[in-house]
Amino acid sequence: MKSGDDRLIRTYLRFKVEKGSTNEFVAMFKAERILETSVAQPGCRSAELTLSEDGSTAIVTAVWEDSEAYRKWTQRSDRERLSRRMNQYLSEPVGKEIVGASFRVVHVG
Question: Which residue of 58, 84, 92, 98 is most buried, as measured by CB atoms within 10 A?
Answer without folding.
Answer: 58
